Amino acid sequence: EPEVTQTPSHQVTQMGQEVILRCVPISNHLYFYWYRQILGQKVEFLVSFYNNEISEKSEIFDDQFSVERPDGSNFTLKIRSTKLEDSAMYFCASWGRGPGYTFGSGTRLTVV
Amino acid sequence: SQQGEEDPQALSIQEGENATMNCSYKTSINNLQWYRQNSGRGLVHLILIRSNEREKHSGRLRVTLDTSKKSSSLLITASRAADTASYFCAARGDDKIIFGKGTRLHILP
Question: From CA A89, how far away is CA A74, in angstroms rounded?
């Protein structure tokens, strides 16, 4: 069964450093998403991406965040200057007009 | 937002019993989806119910949707230890889904 792949599974970074979280969506999907889940809390929408541009973003997705689809397979989330409160699980998802979204296993980001 | 809110927040039942989780949302939706999350893992899509549907079944899962009350329920019948997980409803309005806070389900042996 097709999967969404996320790397790395766990990343530890110093506050103020830039991080790039990587995702390989399902190849024939056209819609891509990033969500995050702070430990023990709900899953929050960050951004949706379609046709090589952001289609919607939440209040969380401020100027420190950016997304890119640099080639035909990767979909990345960049945080320019990480803060302690950016520590969370980050989930990538893709959708191809099927019944539901397909989520990756997540990247656990720890900012110290 | 079309945020979903589940209740109860946590539920413990004996193996073999049925588990019912409820979800409410705020705005109009195209569909409502339920996802499962094992501890520390990703989200797995379980079932989707469209706004013009009232009930849907998939294996041991039964989902209902009441658009007049903006609510949905997920019933897991004949629960098993492997059903222990968090369950989230997710309301889809335009092109994104908004998750509720989830119900932590614990199946007791």
Answer: 19
CA dist B33 and A101 (Å) reads: 9
CB atoms inside a 10 Å sphere around CB A74: 14
Q: Which residues between 44 and 73 in chain A have a beta carbon less than 8 angstroms from any beta carbon of chain B?
A: 44-45, 48, 50, 55-56
The answer to whether B107 and B87 have CB atoms below 8 angstroms apart is: no
Q: Give the Cα separation of B32 and B45 in Å (integer).
A: 11
Between positions 4 and 23 of A, the ones with CB within 8 A of B are none
Question: Residue B59 has which token pair?
Answer: 């294996």
Give per-residue pLDDT as tens, B47-88: 999 999 999 999 999 999 999 999 999 999 999 999 999 999
Ordered by where they begin, the domains of chain A are 5-107 (2.60.40.10)
- The pairing of strands B10-14 and B43-50 is unpaired
| Residue type for position B22 | N
The pLDDT of residue B39: 83
Instruction: Say whether B95 and A31 touch across the interface (CB within 8 A).
Output: yes
For residue A44, give the nearest of A79, A86, A7 by alpha carbon.
Answer: A86
CATH topology for the B5-108 domain:
Immunoglobulin-like (2.60.40)
Identify the pLDDT of residue B3.
61
The DSSP code for B80 is -
At residue A52, does pLDDT exceed 70?
yes
Domain ranges of chain B: 5-108
